[in-house]
Amino acid sequence: MSENGGASKSNSTNGAGHCGSSFFKEPKAVMSVSKYERFYKVNHKNRGIAVILNHEHFWTKNKSKKQPNPGTNADLMSFEKALKSLGFKTLIYEDQTVQSIMNILEDVSEEDHSDNDCFILVCLTCGKQGNLRARDNLYNPSILWSYFTAKKCSTLAGKPKLFFIQAREEEETDGSQVDSYPSYTIPDQADVLIVSVIPNMFTFNKETQSSWFAQVLCEKLNTYGFSEDILTLLTSVNRKIAENFESFIVNNPNKQVKKEIPHITSMLTRQLQFYKKDCDEQDNAVASMTVLDTPYKMNHKNRGFAVILNHKIFDTKDPRPGTSVDVNNLEKSLQRLGFHTEPYLNLTVAKIKQVLKKVSEKDHSDNDCFLLVCLTHGSLRGISASDNLYNPNELWSLFTEEKCPTLAGKPKLFFIQACQGGNLDAGVRLYSQVDSGSPYKIPSDPDFLIASATVPGFVAWRSWFIKVLSEKLDEFGFTEDLLTLLTYVSCSVAVDFDSYCPSNPANHGKKQIPSINSTLTRKLKFSENI
Predict the structure, then answer these.
(1) Domain for residue 38, yes or no?
(2) Per the residue annotation, which of 126, 153, 374, 419 is the catalytic one?
């Protein structure tokens, strides 16, 4: 199944239920916010539950002790204080086994969260190769959120689910270096936010043994938790870590002066901002006017280059009809924002590499940023050029600070319209009380944003993502910061579109949620003075 496998039907909730009801039992969920509301509702009776999984001591398979996780109790105390100050009910679990973790999460997911604003989980542990360490064994981090999809936890459907993962690097006894990127599959449901500091990055304060991520995040939550939306707050966390922290490991020169950038993976469909439960709306409105951080400098001589890799015809795959219309609309939107667009059609893998190398070697000193869009077929094995599959990492690997220094400190933006697998998302219908009615390796460098049409493992239907992105760029390109704008994109894709192929009931009425991965360190807002 490709992204062109079925038509789309906007606002077709009746169509979605028509064919799907004979194949699955459609979960029902109620949320008291209209489907186009820009902010999540955070005025329920309770803020919600915050589960903290703290791991200090570990055992090997033969029951011998592994090296402990120093400093984790300091992080635990910081998180507990910050989350309680925001109104969360904290549940702390120490040194649990994999099975115990699964039991805890199942119990929490089966609770009634109807009167809660949201849910938070914090995991403080060690890990390696993208996996996390429980007391007895490694486990895949996707376990943490697998219990909280809208189907499995209907009372949290339409509400934000936030996951913060601090995984300290495990020492490798053979001295080998393992890949420092996560290898887990992100959720197939909307309204999830994952912030991870992954294993084999250099994550702790040499004096206190606490983690930079926990230290800075809790500091920002304490200071700005009631005055800034969560994506703005997390971007400021990235900025402070990028600018102020580096590793200091005396006995390992290879790990000296290394940087840590938390990865923000967002499938939120609205902005999330906490307000004090005991304040009136006017007080909260004043608090929300606080400005947390300065934006990227967007007043260079030029906006920058926008490379568009458009794939319509393939050697061994079906063509992508309609992609030329998408590109024309997108090109107009980007030119309106001031970008110099460079469209390319049906390139081979070799030619794509040549184009990217040439662009990365240009002098971007007078440019605000760089942008690339890729429209093609894809799967878990990669994305398609005209002649073959290639790893999407090729798209951004040449634009790191080291390889493209004139873009250092400037935003690098990548938008991918392609399938990432063949799974179908049937979705969950939300009954509003207001409207009655694989995995890619994300750069460890700062200042990257990668927005994909769908999450790993799932189909991207038609060109919903690019269509809505063009519309939102036209509507909000000069008025909203980019992460906020992309949240609007996610909302529209999630609620307005269902696949429409009644002749094939198995593919009819399916949903899609974009995935936004960010290491941006500032707000990005396009100015009009071009």
Answers:
(1) no
(2) 419
Does residue 29 lie in a domain region?
no
The tokens of 403 are what?
A: 């390889």
- The alpha helices in 249-321, defined as continuous H runs, are 281-287
Please state, in angstroms and rounded to a whole number, the distance separating the CA atoms of residues 517 and 521: 13
User: What DSSP state is assigned to residue 407?
Assistant: G
Look up residue 145 and give its two tokens: 């959120």
Other C-beta atoms closer than 10 Å to the C-beta of 275 total: 22
Q: Which domain holds residue 485?
A: 305-428+436-500+507-519
Domain boundary among 206, 238, 267: 267
3-state helix, strand, coil in the chain (%, to 5): 30, 25, 50
What is the C-alpha separation between 27 and 155, in angstroms, rounded? 11
Establish whether 419 is a catalytic residue: yes
How many structural domains are present in the chain? 2
CA distance 499 to 509: 5
**Active-site entry in 19, 377, 491, 508:** 377
In-domain check, residue 341: yes
Q: For residues 333 and 473, state if they share a domain.
A: yes
Q: Report yes or no: 454 and 517 within 8 Å, Cβ to Cβ.
A: no
Whether residue 471 lies inside any domain: the answer is yes
Q: Check if 218 is active-site.
A: no
pLDDT digits (tens, 9 = 90+) for 341-381: 999 999 999 999 999 999 999 999 999 999 999 988 877 77
Q: For strands 370-375 and 305-310, give the pairing.
A: parallel
pLDDT at 11: 41
Indicate if 334 and 242 belong to the same structural domain: no
Tell me the pTM. 0.77
* CATH number (domain holding residue 444): 3.40.50.1460
